[in-house]
Amino acid sequence: MNSWSYILAGYLLTGGSVVVYLVSLHWRKRAATAQRDALRRQRKDMTG
Q1: Rounded Cα distance, 8 and 4, in Å
Q2: How does pLDDT run across 22-31, given as a tens digit for each residue?
Q3: Rounded to an integer, what distance in angstroms lies between the CA atom of residue 27 and that of residue 6?
Q4: Where exactly are the transmembrane stretches of this chain (predicted)?
């Protein structure tokens, strides 16, 4: 019984870290694309 609770706790911990990792990756990608769009817009404004 105890071993099962340990396994469950470990699974939840690793699963949670994986979810956090994926979410951070997603947000980093979104930030990068937003930055790229802003740079493109600036260049467009400069060239007219």
Answers
A1: 6
A2: 999 999 999 9
A3: 31
A4: 6-27
